[in-house]
Design goal:
PD-(D/E)XK nuclease family protein; PDDEXK_4; alpha/beta
Length: 283
């Protein structure tokens, strides 16, 4: 057994952090539902909504998708569950989100935990036919796939943006924004949503977990031996303390030692603690 290597590897583990604060989205168990996420994104991308953060969410998405624009977006029309249909296809589908500005349109497929099996070809044909200058749109259409994890294959013409990267970008913008602006009642819901989505992504947490399990796997025998020795030491100590307590020639001054008191409280159950207190009063 290599206890020296175990100690060395233990020092290399990521520092432990405080317990994760459970968000309201998590408590209600709605953070994993795509329709809830889509509704929240619809709210965020609408520039003139009551969240009063303007175009910050839209700018965060544009930056993460690396979409160039000439003018700062000042107004949006946001649609959800857009029915995409085509005479050339039998199957139909619903586009999760469409964001129209005067300069471009964003066609967003939002995924949280589900597999991407949507009729993407129908979506693209629908957009090509409908969102044109002839129909009073910009004609510049960008397709975005938002998801927790990056799929092995990204659909043609789509750009992938993770929920984590979007939320981290928006979080940074909001922190700067709220330095000079008072939060309103919706601000806390937005922050709660951001925390929940980042937690779902938890790439860093997963990395830390892998490091931990790697250590346990490689040093299982050493850890098991330490646990066995620890139990033996505690059992022996407990038996010695029992003998000490039962010997009448040991007086109260023996128990004034802080470490002895801590050991008694740690090793004994409630009844034993009461028993010790009774003995102390007796002697």
């Amino acid at each position: 057994m290599n206890f020296d290597q175990l100690i060395f590897d233990l020092k290399g583990l990521p520092a432990t952090t405080a317990a994760h604060e459970i968000t309201m989205f998590e408590r209600l168990d709605v953070n994993r539902y795509e329709n809830v996420s889509s509704k929240m994104l619809e709210f965020l991308f609408q520039i003139d909504e009551q969240h009063e953060i303007g175009n910050l969410a839209l700018l965060a998405l544009l930056e993460e998708a690396k979409i160039q624009y000439e003018h700062m977006p000042k107004g949006t029309e946001v649609l959800s569950e857009v029915h995409a249909k085509s005479s050339q296809h039998d199957n139909l589908g619903f586009i999760d989100l469409v964001v129209h500005t005067s300069e471009f349109s964003l066609i967003i497929e939002n995924k949280v935990r589900h597999i991407l099996n949507n009729p993407i070809d129908v979506y693209q044909l629908f957009v090509k036919q409908q969102y044109t200058k002839k129909n009073s749109y910009s004609g510049k259409n960008h397709f975005i796939l938002m998801a927790i994890d990056k799929p092995k294959k990204i659909p043609k013409n789509y750009v992938f943006v993770s929920h984590e990267s979007f939320c981290l970008n928006l979080k940074s913008k909001l922190e700067e924004f709220f330095q000079n602006t008072e939060k309103n009642r919706y601000s806390y819901f937005i922050e709660d949503y951001i925390k929940a989505m980042i937690k779902m992504s938890n790439t860093q947490i997963n990395h830390d977990k892998k490091s931990f399990f790697k250590l346990v796997t490689e040093h299982y025998n050493e850890i098991d031996e330490i646990q066995t020795r620890k139990k033996n030491v505690f059992d022996v100590t407990k038996s010695y303390l029992t003998e000490i307590i039962e010997e009448s020639n040991y007086k109260e001054d023996f128990f004034q030692n802080v470490k002895i008191k801590e050991m008694i409280l740690f090793l004994g159950n409630i009844k034993e603690v009461f028993y010790i207190q009774i003995l102390l009063k007796k002697y």
